[in-house]
Amino acid sequence: MKSNFRTLVLLVLPLLLPVIAAAQTHRASLRGTVYDPSGATISGATLGLTNVATGETRETKSGMEGEYTFTSLPAGQYELAISMSAGFKEQYHKFELFVDEVRRRDITLQLRLEEQVTIDWTSEVPLKMDSPSLDRNWLN
Description:
1 helix, alpha/beta, about 35% strand, about 15% helix, Immunoglobulin-like
């Protein structure tokens, strides 16, 4: 009886090893939240993740609560680009992901300072200096 059990185990074990090996992951994942400088979450930010070695790029957008996720990533060097069309600077972050790593990377976008415009205002409205009343003629 022991001999039959041993034989059965020796026959079945080699068949189960590939299944056991496939169940283990050799991938990493990246997740986080996108914030503005005040700490409020930003939805709709575009995130592009590029594997530096292969050039493969994945893209996603931050969700309603500013969250984003990239899964099933091979280990390696990555560059993350984050952009938002309305008023924020584009940012880049480089880092390395390792086998079976779950990395959290929260990002705070910085405000983009728009070009400053100076307006030279010269008034053509005559000032009436001899009376405290207003001259209504300049409104016409």
